[in-house]
Amino acid sequence: MSRVEKNNIPRPYNLIANERANNSDFSVDEMFKFLEGNSDQHANSILEISKLLERDLVLRNKPGYYENTSKDEIRRTTFLKVKQLALYCERIVAEQLANGVPYDKIDISQYNNILFTYAVYDPQTVTRIAIHSGLFYSAIKGNGTKAQFNYWAFEREGLYAKGVYGCFGMTELAHGSNVAALETTAEYDFKTKTFTINTPHIGATKWWIGGAATTANHCCVYARLIVKGKDYGVKTFIVQLRDVDHHLIPGVSIGDIGAKMGRQGIDNGWIQFTNVKIPKNFMLQKYVQINDDEEEVINSPMDQLAYGALLGGRVGMVMDSYRVGAKVTTIALRYAVGRRQFGKAVNKETNFASPQQVDNSLKLEKQLIDYPNHQYRLIPLLATAYCLSSAAYRMVRNLDAVNSALESTQLLKNKKFLFKTIEDLKEVFVISAAVKPSSTWYGAKAIDECRQACGGHGYSAYSSFGQTYNDWVVQCTWEGDNNVLSMNSGRSMTKYRQSALKGRPVPSQFKFLTKSYKPSDFAKLDFSDNARLLELFDFMVISMIDEVVAQLKKYNKDFDKVGPLMLNTAKFFCQRYYLESVLLYFDATEANSSIKPALVNIINLFALYTIKENSGVFLRFGLLSQSQIALVESRIFDDLLPFLRHRIVALTDAFKLSDFFINTPLGNYDGDIYNKYFDLVNSVNNNKSDYDDYAYQDEILKFLKRGSIEEREYHEKDAKTLEKLGK
Amino acid sequence: MSRVEKNNIPRPYNLIANERANNSDFSVDEMFKFLEGNSDQHANSILEISKLLERDLVLRNKPGYYENTSKDEIRRTTFLKVKQLALYCERIVAEQLANGVPYDKIDISQYNNILFTYAVYDPQTVTRIAIHSGLFYSAIKGNGTKAQFNYWAFEREGLYAKGVYGCFGMTELAHGSNVAALETTAEYDFKTKTFTINTPHIGATKWWIGGAATTANHCCVYARLIVKGKDYGVKTFIVQLRDVDHHLIPGVSIGDIGAKMGRQGIDNGWIQFTNVKIPKNFMLQKYVQINDDEEEVINSPMDQLAYGALLGGRVGMVMDSYRVGAKVTTIALRYAVGRRQFGKAVNKETNFASPQQVDNSLKLEKQLIDYPNHQYRLIPLLATAYCLSSAAYRMVRNLDAVNSALESTQLLKNKKFLFKTIEDLKEVFVISAAVKPSSTWYGAKAIDECRQACGGHGYSAYSSFGQTYNDWVVQCTWEGDNNVLSMNSGRSMTKYRQSALKGRPVPSQFKFLTKSYKPSDFAKLDFSDNARLLELFDFMVISMIDEVVAQLKKYNKDFDKVGPLMLNTAKFFCQRYYLESVLLYFDATEANSSIKPALVNIINLFALYTIKENSGVFLRFGLLSQSQIALVESRIFDDLLPFLRHRIVALTDAFKLSDFFINTPLGNYDGDIYNKYFDLVNSVNNNKSDYDDYAYQDEILKFLKRGSIEEREYHEKDAKTLEKLGK
């Protein structure tokens, strides 16, 4: 026994162990492979990286990780981890250079996979270094020439934070989403061949710049190019912020923007520029050049291609959403299996190590997971994570293909190839603009619902939910505010649909917009048929877009007026995209795979849950009837939830998140919830023999033992005193 | 000018000042009175208390309030404020005692109003003292005799934290919501006339006990009364935890449960009892006594009345929900008026102090508030706060009436009066079990949506949203988990409906369940008619309950199976309750009041928003047609939102939350968003001449300037070295 106890105690570990042993009819390994892009290679790579991370003592957080530590202390420990990650990157690059790989061919995808995997454990550390190696260098890659990228990344060795530590100077205090309206200026002087960078007023102060407050010595500044008084729009410039002694360059003002809701470990700062001069070639010149002889600006219309490099962040956030969903549903579902409350236990024997031990005198309560309401709160979130994983891998692969095309020598030689690449890039852009928002909102909702599903203990810092939520929710705002992105995506889809109706070509992943359906097609829909449900989802997106078009007529083509509708269209498109993606991957699994029965039901639950949660719109457009909604509900509650409940431990095990990644006793693999939680609380908090040594203990005692009001007021108002003072 | 700037700058303060001056057609004072229970007296009292709090330098938080401070430091500053609040309580009691008021008649409602008002500013401080003066003393009042209450509260002067500091020992590690299953035991010994308190195993450890970790010296322990081996269920016992030197009593083990998602200032702890003996009279004896002569337990069946005293907390949380909604919508809506993004400005002149100054060369962007999507995100949340205020005041008044009845001498003399009181108490119980969950969920949603609506700046700690959210969301869990409470409430409503159908009496606020409607009654519904909409809401609740009943048949009366349906019933009942309450108060306003036109539209928006958000259920039950939903949407977007948008500054001013309560530059009254935000960030963070003095600056520099891998590895792998080591 782990502590002195009588027999009559809750044993969540036996519940979980027994359910793990008895309630699984599929291979957890096969399921894991499916979740990792249906690829053995990916699945193995994730496991290898997970092992590497789990063993790294610099990257491992201390038990006090969830304590309120001061911002400076969090910043410092985060930097130690940033250094360690940079060293991994350095090795990966060095190995390739040693093997003669040229700069242009160096592949850091292994390093990026380390970051993505570590992000579920420590998002702030990953963001902090990804601003440098991801955003800063992606901006240089996207906007700069190869020579420029190779200089900053490899000749200077900056890619792995040697000599150069970059930050990404886009957002301004008064300008977030609207990049085209940024107000920082870069004015060119043909005489000195330099740019002068200026912050015209407080609203144009660069704000939220991660790394600026303390770490960065360079910044990729987004500023308006001004030449001979003419404004050529927003371009990118490399500006040194700190010199070789890490002292600020004169004209550069920097401050720390201080505390945030989460991710305190990132040193976000503000920057103001006052007449800071940089050489001509510090402008990134892939799509814009200045011809000094003709005194003119050569502005390429293809500068939209620059954003391809930044899409990686947005697509990565979809993968993050999958992983955070996997993490929090694992915690809440394991807790739901181990925790009892109220009603009579359904099966007592699972409380015991072996069924022979059953003590029928015990009044055991019901496991949380046996309540239909609890099932409905959690299992659809798990199902969404399953479907989301396919969508995330699909998007990563699509973006990889586009980025390869962007790097291809074909690009500038072959116009057809160029146009195709531009179209493909735009397609990824539109899809990610719908899927990033809804996926990050899913993440926020999953964390919050899973926290609530763990009751009071969910509110303990050691449940991990609080910090996970606080770190997470910025994903709904940065790299494109979720509302703004969704509306933009909905707008693009509307245009695709209008093109489709006119017989013009639409991108391949929007081909479904050319279809035509009528409600009667679905009058006898078999709700267990996932492929048919996808067609219903097609119809739903089409119906929503057609409503957008109708409303646009009403409002004289004022797109702002149909904002809420476009938003909902993009939201529903995302659900459709999840379903399409997971079915694509499902169809690619082996015919006799053991995971199929569970997976079919998982997918089906996701689809039917989506219908139920959006039943207002399905009914509104007449796509389904009232009695069909009743059928959907009956299938959810009578078939799918009970089926999946009995496989629930295996379904969370299939995420293969070790206790290192779970990082809370409420969701550990062995399910020894109460002992581990109690021990963790005491290891962090109660290391002294008793509680009498608190600094303010005396203050409490002095207050409790205070004298009467009369004593504390020098008895000035006592009757005797007042007598002396007059009548 | 506040800093050196050219003319071309964003001026949110002019936007807000001009809208305040020009876009209001009602009296803000009258509206404020309406919001404070439609009572001049309440409105004035709130303003007086607000002034008192705003001026109190102990209660005022420092500018670093939103920084990551260590838990110990937050605990200490919170305790200083707890002391100050206790001193207010002491004065209020002392004044009455000096005027000869007997213990039984002492009224601390003024002190409680101070707590409620302060809670919107500093929830953790209020909770910390309210656990003592509210929960601990409410438990004594509810369960104890008058003599017991008077001793602990007044003779010992404990009520205002003199000598006695209490905590509330209900929750256990393995038992939260299910109080009846608590496992701590209190075994009576007739020989020694003492109880022995024991924690049988780790799962029964008292957990989450606010005040236990450091402050409390007494605990009201909920434990099973065991007499001669028989279990009489859970009763309440006063147990001393710490002695007069504040040292733990032997047998009492206490630990700090450490960091939480929010409210770090509360010293929650765990407690284990090992054979702790207390005298017989330390059991609270209003509803249970032990007769030593007969060696028997006298257990009153009326012990449910004890919970009346605890309902205050639950009802208070509805008021909290109103105030937090008021706070966050004020911030987000003022920000939405001052902040510009994207599209062309609708009216440029409001940017300037006077219309003569308009500079048409300025490219001004559109105010956020002019986007229909932004309006739809925020204005319904404001409208909900308006309706919620009426519901909160109504519940407070109902509970006050019940509590007066519970204190009445009639109670034990007049059986009819007793039964009526039991029924009334149950009615408040059922209503609060529906309204507390949905209101606290509204609070969480409002904070989160308002944060997102402030974009990136919403994620800054100085926006206040982060801490407000973290402090808030525990309200969805404590004093009855929202899901559990809602399902229980839905179950009671189902029973009321079944009684109603059988012609049996139902409580007055559930009389609407006796009505009968048919869909055709609403076929020609005028959606601007709030009174008719209330009837529609009646019908909706009735339809949902009838569905619960139908499903219960299907599932053989297994209430757990219909949990999700009961939950939704309670949720919708709450919306109906808001509507009914606000219409009650609206009907009581003066006929020619200037606030009526705005108020009618606010209420209408709330009702139609509720329909739109629940359209799936309205359509499912056939209460409304598809075309009616379209009408609802058109009325929201074409009439109500544009109407309210033009009064939006006045509608937030009407909450009368001064900058002290708003506590963030994003939502200050004067709207000088950027200057004040910038100044606050720098006053807290950037007080040094530059950033070169960071403790880990050297570490950064050393890392950036590190040598090559070869150097760092002692050149052991250089070709020359390897040559020496063999072939």
Describe the protein in words:
2 copies of one chain form a homodimer. In chain A, strands 1, 2, 3, 5, 6 and 9 form a 6-stranded mixed sheet that branches. Chain A has a 3-stranded antiparallel sheet with strand order 4-8-7, with no helix packed on it. Chain A has 4 domains: 40-164; 166-304, Butyryl-CoA Dehydrogenase, subunit A, domain 2 (Beta Barrel), CATH 2.40.110; 319-653, Butyryl-CoA Dehydrogenase, subunit A, domain 3, CATH 1.20.140.10; 690-725, no CATH class. The longest helix of chain A is centred in the middle third of the chain and has 39 residues, at 415-453. The first copy, chain A, has helices spanning 12-22, 28-35, 40-55, 71-98, 109-119, 123-143, 146-155, 311-338, 372-407, 410-413, 415-453, 465-472, 482-501, 530-554, 563-587, 596-613, 615-620, 626-645, 648-653, 659-662, 673-685, 697-704, 709-712, 719-724, and strands at residues 166-169, 185-189, 194-198, 206-210, 218-227, 230-240, 252-256, 268-273, 276-279, 288-291, 296-299, 340-344, 365-367. With 727 residues, chain A is an alpha+beta fold. Chain A is built from 24 helices and 13 strands. Chains A and B meet through helix 4, strand 7, strand 12, helix 9 and helix 11 of A and helix 4, strand 7, strand 12, helix 9 and helix 11 of B. Chains A, B: Residues 28-152 form the Acyl-coenzyme A oxidase N-terminal domain. Chains A, B: FAD binds at residues 171, 210. Chains A, B: One of its GO terms (cellular component) is peroxisome. Chains A, B: Residues 167-276 form the Acyl-CoA oxidase/dehydrogenase middle domain.
